[in-house]
């Protein structure tokens, strides 16, 4: 079977990389439905290419690859990421484009070295509040998902210069800001955050007024 041949080829390449002490491993396009567990032995890996396969999940053993700075999981069938991916805290580039992700684990916040995160063409309908904690992000691709809005805290990412939102059913005001560029999106998010604070304060004041009025009515009756 083609899949079996691909898996055997992956095992061969992993063993070859282990023997040579290779820092890059290319397993793309092998039609893999799973990653051989033997990959956990490649603790020296810096770059790993698993794109263009048929993966629906990743092995927990991927946590052993603590030196990884580049991980490409694009064009697979992933519906979620394992919590173990958060052990890869040296990652600077993470591509998960063209999968079937419905959400991101909140623990992705531990990937503090990330500068590029691509989630292009998934099934995300909301964005994890953990993403704005990735302070070194310079590129964030959220194109072609199901997003109508993004967290206001995205505006706190001071190094973010490339934000891609095209192909999402964005709320009209956000869509209009996006047409004007990243800085316009940031300003929209800041204004929205301020408006939310003002609204919350107004609700608190109103609540206090209503409580005071209720007390006064009790006194007069």
How would you describe the overall organization of this protein?
- The structure is a single chain.
- By secondary structure, this protein is an alpha/beta fold.
- 30% of the residues lie in helices and 10% in strands.
- It is built from 3 helices and 7 strands; from the N terminus they run αβββββββαα.
- Strands 1-2-3-4-5-6-7 form a 7-stranded parallel sheet.
- α2 (172-179) runs antiparallel to α3.
- It is elongated, with a radius of gyration of 23 Å.
Strand order within the widest beta sheet = 1-2-3-4-5-6-7
Distance between termini? Answer: 86 Å
* Main beta sheet: 7 strands, parallel
Radius of gyration: 23 Å
**Helix/strand structural class:** alpha/beta
Number of helices: 3
Task: Give the amount of beta strand, in percent.
Answer: 5-15%
Can you write the helix and strand succession as a string? HEEEEEEEHH
Q: What's the β-strand tally?
A: 7
Helical content band: 25-40%
- Mean pLDDT over the residues: 89
Which descriptor suits the 3D outline? elongated
Question: Which residues form runs of ≥5 with pLDDT under 50?
Answer: 198-203
Please describe the structure with a list of short key phrases separated by commas or semicolons.
221 residues; 7-stranded parallel sheet; 10% strand; alpha/beta; 3 helices
Outline of the structure:
This protein is an alpha/beta fold. It contains three helices and seven strands.
List the helices and strands and how they pair.
Blueprint: H1 2-20, E1 24-26, E2 47-49, E3 70-72, E4 93-95, E5 116-118, E6 139-141, E7 162-164, H2 172-179, H3 182-220
Parallel strand pairs: 1-2, 2-3, 3-4, 4-5, 5-6, 6-7
Helix pairs in contact: 2-3
